Amino acid sequence: MVLTGTLGIIAVNGFAKKAVKPNIIYIMCDDMGYGDLGCYGQPFINTPHIDQMASEGMRFTQAYAGSPVSAPSRACLMTGQHSGHTWVRGNKEYWSPKHMVMYGKNKDFAVVGQEPYASDHVIVPEIMKDNGYTTGMFGKWAGGYEGSCSTPDKRGIDEFYGYICQFQAHLYYPNFLNQYSRSAGDTAVSRVVLEDNIRYPMFGKDYFKRTQYSADLIHRKAMEWLDKQNNRQPFFGIFTYTLPHAELAQPEDSILMKYEKKFFVDKTWGGQEGSRYNPVVHTHAQFAGMISRLDQYVGEILDKLKEKGLDENTIVIFTSDNGPHEEGGADPSFFGRDGKLRGLKRQCYEGGIRIPFIVRWPGHVQAGVTSDLQFAFYDLMPTFCDLAGIKDYVKHYKNKKKDVDYFDGISIAPTLLGKEGQKKHDFLYWEFHETDQFGVRVGDWKMVVIKGVPHLYNLSTDLHEDHDVAAEHPDIVKKMVGIIYAQHTPSKYFKVTMPKI
């Protein structure tokens, strides 16, 4: 695929000047539902900074994650492929027989992490780095276990701080995090043991005596990296914050206290037998506080860009990796978090895959605009390349073969920049082995296949996917089943039941 670059000669202060490549900050939180933000209708949680970002940019109402869970959704972003083609299609975990050390039972930590991205398939940060960008990633990696062929230091990242292992990222007061800095001369990703945390056990009331809160540590490193950036070299930052994922835990500060006084009816979660999470009081306050904490991070990022004079040449994107969860005491139904959508994380219904998506770029992306363009995470690789003026990203592919579809994405840059010529997908596609599901969208038609059985919905009249009309439209079902057979490539690790033809 050859892209037509959107950069060229622009007028600045009345003079013609060749445009420089824009900086890109991609902020992706974890398990935030479509309706969790004020600008998407959330009535209980304060998100003033993200809401302001939406008012200053473009808000999408039909944006989709790559998958209903973390690792494969991120793989679609990184590879530009949908989950029927990309190598990583699930949360496949790796650890040694001593894997319980991640819970603090042994200081001789095990190797941890997920299935690696295919080493011969180029990913977004590699392309950006090859085209003059300095790259940083802060938060969750989830693209390969420690020491594998796919860790940040080997995949185009100049500086990393966070979790290599997304399973470890279920905890906000972990025993260790990972880091890598090319500029500091690091040769590989290493571990940072959080000494103040390991003084206290992973389970029980003393767990909350731990002081090193991972979300704050990661954000601080991201801000330090951002503070080093300038107008001399473009930068590409991937900020994959773990909030509001998994356990409900955070510092007892003003953010949390504000919500503890707000909810007159709140819940206490006592934990479950064998659960990885500690009991929690004020679950509603904890969840709301975590999203407001994330909102504060976004505000600090935008303020830093303005402070450094980088604001007008930096594209900032905010989104979530998949739909909402109900783990550790989280209560999506209370907050109306699904935005009137059916389904949660791990499901190919709308609630599991439709996500908030906001883009801000002053002077380029029109402010206060809402778009109903249908797209998914695998469209972001060509979009980033288009915005950066990278005209032919296929040349970066590591193992070129004839007649192979390396990428499934379509650039949405024309929509962002208010230009004509936006191409659209004939269909959007998802598959997920853990719940044995497929999802296909064609226009307003949406098919969800569960254990080989197709269910068809018309989203224009049935957004909540309540009325299965598959029996009434066998021709449409046949067409969409045909898409699955055309798009699905077999995977030895992530197997799904194919629908009957």
Written account of the structure:
The protein has helices at 48-55, 70-79, 124-130, 195-198, 214-227, 254-260, 283-307, 332-335, 350-353, 380-387, 413-416, 474-487; strands at 9-12, 15-18, 23-29, 58-60, 63-64, 93-95, 112-114, 134-140, 159-163, 176-181, 190-193, 235-240, 314-320, 357-360, 369-371, 375-376, 428-432, 437-442, 445-450, 453-458. By secondary structure, the chain is of the alpha/beta class. Strand 17 (428-432) and strand 18 form a beta hairpin. The two termini are 32 Å apart.
| Order of strands in the sheet with most strands | 11-10-9-8-12-3-13-14-4-15
Helix content: 10-25%
Spatial separation of the terminal alpha carbons: 32 Å
Radius of gyration: 22 Å
Oligomer: single chain
Task: Give the overall average pLDDT.
Answer: 90
Poorly predicted runs: 1-18, 97-108
Shape, please?
Answer: globular
Structural class computed from helices and strand pairing: alpha/beta
Largest sheet: number of strands, sense, barrel closure: 10 strands, mixed
Write a short abstract of this structure.
With 501 residues, this protein is α/β, with parallel strands linked by helices.
Topology at a glance:
Elements: E1 9-12, E2 15-18, E3 23-29, H1 48-55, E4 58-60, E5 63-64, H2 70-79, E6 93-95, E7 112-114, H3 124-130, E8 134-140, E9 159-163, E10 176-181, E11 190-193, H4 195-198, H5 214-227, E12 235-240, H6 254-260, H7 283-307, E13 314-320, H8 332-335, H9 350-353, E14 357-360, E15 369-371, E16 375-376, H10 380-387, H11 413-416, E17 428-432, E18 437-442, E19 445-450, E20 453-458, H12 474-487
Parallel strand pairs: 3-12, 3-13, 4-15, 5-16, 8-9, 8-12
Antiparallel strand pairs: 1-2, 4-14, 6-7, 9-10, 10-11, 13-14, 17-18, 18-19, 19-20
